[in-house]
Amino acid sequence: xxxxxxxxxxxxxxxxxxxxxxxxxxxxxxxxxxxxxxxxxxxxxxxxxxxxxxxxxxxxxxxxxxxxxxxxxxxxxxxxxxxxxxxxxxxxxxxxxxxxxxxxxxxxxxxxxxxxxxxxxxxxxxxxxxxxxxxxxxxxxxxxxxxxxxxxxxxxxxxxxxxxxxxxxxxxxxxxxxxxxxxxxxxxxxxxxxxxxxxxxxxxxxxxxxxxxxxxxxxxxxxxxxxxxxxxxxxxxxxxxxxxxxxxxxxxxxxxxxxxxxxxxxxxxxxxxxxxxxxxxxxxxxxxxxxxxxxxxxxxxxxxxxxxxxxxxxxxxxxxxxxxxxxxxxxxxxxxxxxxxxxxxxxxxxxxxxxxxxxxxxxxxxxxxxxxxxxxxxxxxxxxxxxxxxxxxxxxxxxxxxxxxxxxxxxxxxxxxxxxxxxxxxxxxxxxxxxxxxxxxxxxxxxxxxxxxxxxxxxxxxxxxxxxxxxxxxxxxxxxxxxxxxxxxxxxxxxxxxxxxxxxxxxxxxxxxxxxxxxxxxxxxxxxxxxxxxxxxxxxxxxxxxxxxxxxxxxxxxxxxxxxxxxxxxxxxxxx
Amino acid sequence: xxxxxxxxxxxxxxxxxxxxxxxxxxxxxxxxxxxxxxxxxxxxxxxxxxxxxxxxxxxxxxxxxxxxxxxxxxxxxxxxxxxxxxxxxxxxxxxxxxxxxxxxxxxxxxxxxxxxxxxxxxxxxxxxxxxxxxxxxxxxxxxxxxxxxxxxxxxxxxxxxxxxxxxxxxxxxxxxxxxxxxxxxxxxxxxxxxxxxxxxxxxxxxxxxxxxxxxxxxxxxxxxxxxxxxxxxxxxxxxxxxxxxxxxxxxxxxxxxxxxxxxxxxxxxxxxxxxxxxxxxxxxxxxxxxxxxxxxxxxxxxxxxxxxxxxxxxxxxxxxxxxxxxxxxxxxxxxxxxxxxxxxxxxxxxxxxxxxxxxxxxxxxxxxxxxxxxxxxxxxxxxxxxxxxxxxxxxxxxxxxxxxxxxxxxxx
Lengths: 576, 412
Hints:
The structure holds two protein chains of two kinds.
Chain A: E1 3-7, E2 17-23, E3 29-36, H1 42-46, H2 54-59, H3 68-81, H4 87-113, H5 128-141, H6 151-166, H7 187-215, E4 224-225, E5 228-229, H8 232-236, H9 238-269, H10 271-275, E6 285-287, E7 290-292, E8 303-305, E9 308-310, E10 326-329, E11 335-336, E12 349-350, E13 358-359, E14 362-363, E15 376-379, H11 388-397, H12 401-413, H13 424-454, H14 466-469, E16 472-481, E17 484-493, E18 496-503, H15 505-510, H16 521-526, H17 538-546, H18 551-554
Antiparallel strand pairs in A: 1-2, 2-3, 4-5, 6-9, 7-8, 10-15, 11-12, 13-14, 16-17, 17-18
Helix pairs in contact in A: 4-7, 4-9, 4-13, 5-6, 5-7, 5-9, 6-7, 7-9, 9-13, 11-13, 12-13
Chain B: H1 3-11, H2 23-42, H3 51-57, H4 62-75, H5 83-91, E1 97-102, H6 108-114, H7 121-128, E2 130-134, H8 142-155, E3 161-165, E4 168-169, E5 178-179, E6 184-185, H9 186-194, E7 199-203, H10 204-209, E8 222-223, H11 225-228, E9 234-237, H12 244-257, H13 270-273, H14 284-288, H15 299-302, H16 321-324, H17 348-351, H18 374-377, H19 381-401
Helix pairs in contact in B: 1-19, 4-5, 5-12
């Protein structure tokens, strides 16, 4: 007789997520269910608006992936209008989104994910001097010097923690899973990671500042418009470009000297889990592709992250991506419908059936029936996972020279076989590999921008005749948010948005079961995981966090206006 | 209506923020603050840390700290003589427990809090305030997270500041948002946690006025905190997201005076929302000179001209972005060449957030329904602007009459 556990709220994520798991007598997860419990209705709100204004509103889908929905929305409209943006605008957008990547990945690792690997209370037992040795050890594996190599600095952090713990109330660190046997780092390693946790909290403001230099502010930048960007002054001014580069170089150093070494450390200490494939899940990976590297225009440019699909972790075969093959199924989502439909044809008939049984004040999901506001997207009838791991896997399978180089180097330095990638640890490592790659290429981009402006090109916007192009158009903005494949689809009629839809990373990853009863990516990744203590969902958090959930993005919308659910039809499908 | 007239409207004395309330007022306020701080110092700190020690660890000396305190004093619209008190208040901020809940949100305000540079976020979390509950940052999840919330509410009954991020969906019995193992709705959750709060701070435009989810046609029946919570002092810090300097300002003001700051008619602190963006805009001279960006990327854009004609709603929007900016003052939307979208105003998605001047836009009524062009409203470009400004002048006049909302600590 197993245990049925409910974890709600899942914290250290964006949005509202519930996970239920069935754990057998050997403390192994044998079944799992993922459910989103909040929605807002943004796609419905976008209908009828001027397509040029949608980006700003669509951006508010998410304040964590801030800017990425903005850009996707604007690009969907540009695609519909056939507008190609100037070179400066392309580079600025890449830099804004690149800043988001490095910011998001670092904040994710340290502030949303690290406490699944790091026991901060153990850091109190550490010897600051030995912590220096530890710092050198992992930095050396990463081929660099440590970010902090000063025992007094580690001592200070420890003192600060001691005081904090002594006064009794632990604030955000209270009632956590400290002491759980599935924490595997030594006291020194914990102190090293906690030191970086605090420093990253400080440094992430610099990465956000990078976005604000060309974006106006962060979160929610405001300088992208249909046809280009507005920050002429900022690109014209060499001091602004220099400031951007300065901040980038320092943040890049942190990535190489702290983040990468910490991931080697976690990867090594948790190597058993990586090698036995804990958290591997579906092993099917999808990438829409992103970061245009030239100005040939929509879906013709060479991309930093190539699109494609890899199935069953088979790196010898890549399927080319075709957006026509994206479908959404609603068998286990709170909507009516019995066949999977493409986003452009999707229908959404809400059918909220609520929770199943209630016992002892706990409401359980009705897992036989419908149990989430997230639909189940399918690619050519496959369940797939998206995100940094998918981008690295597809890049390697496609023999992309840059991605292959970074992935190979990481595995070689860490003395790790390729198969460790297909695990919770691998997902976390792939994100770190990608962060280093992004920080490096951003240096090239910022130089490219400076050179282009210095050569006299300050154009930032492509003119178009709105009345003509907006009569009857449709387009899509397909790209990659930090946490995975993100697409906005828009239909425009007589200057207004007729239909608007988005299929986003956490729709792919957090989805419930599909019409064949096949699990979504989160659900599949939990199966087989051993938990140390069923009362403490540490291992569940570790694997779910490795996907970097962003649930506000993923939830479907409906138009209800206070009417009874299930009694009306709306034409949106998909996921906000 | 001619340009002269328009200029007159824009350059009229705005907002009626009384920045000089006279010696007598400030003397008595000074004494009150002093007493309040003495009281607080007697309280057992939630976090037993000395902020100066922490700042020194971080390489910040007393002088830098006082510099920050004097900037914050100015932000709070207090005379310079209050600087030492603001510094002291920062040192005893660790007596204020904070519970932060997220409802129909995008976590943008939580992210904004992470960008706070004065004080910096690690200091805020570890040393300054006692952040008892915050879903995006806290280590515990599930039952343990719920226990932590219960514990904090019980332990600091009547004393905690409740920060709320996100709107509350009311349609269909609130099924659009549930939280916790029991499947409690956001509305129930908010009422439960608000009950024993000393005061509520609604951060961001969703928690204040409904924001994005409440934009037409408001599919989930989303509302702001003040629409459903009654009988509690509420401070609204709108904007999308709210500026972290204003969040810290409200906490400091509370520590300093034991009161929530003086508010306008929309419950926004006047220290932050007493002026229009337009009043202190760096591009204002170009407005006055009639120099406008006519379309993106044109010669006007290259020369920093006024963005009014490409949709800037700075003249209609009350906020301090043009003074304190964002991300350590590195930039702000108008600096980056895009007009203000009015994000600290109610219904801004339906009233202001488009790239044309008001009169040029298709205005979608907040109630849904058929949108009307300005021609149908019968307004020309300039009159529409004037109407907008007129409405806001009226707002500020009303706001000017509203007095400070006094609350004593623990007084519900």
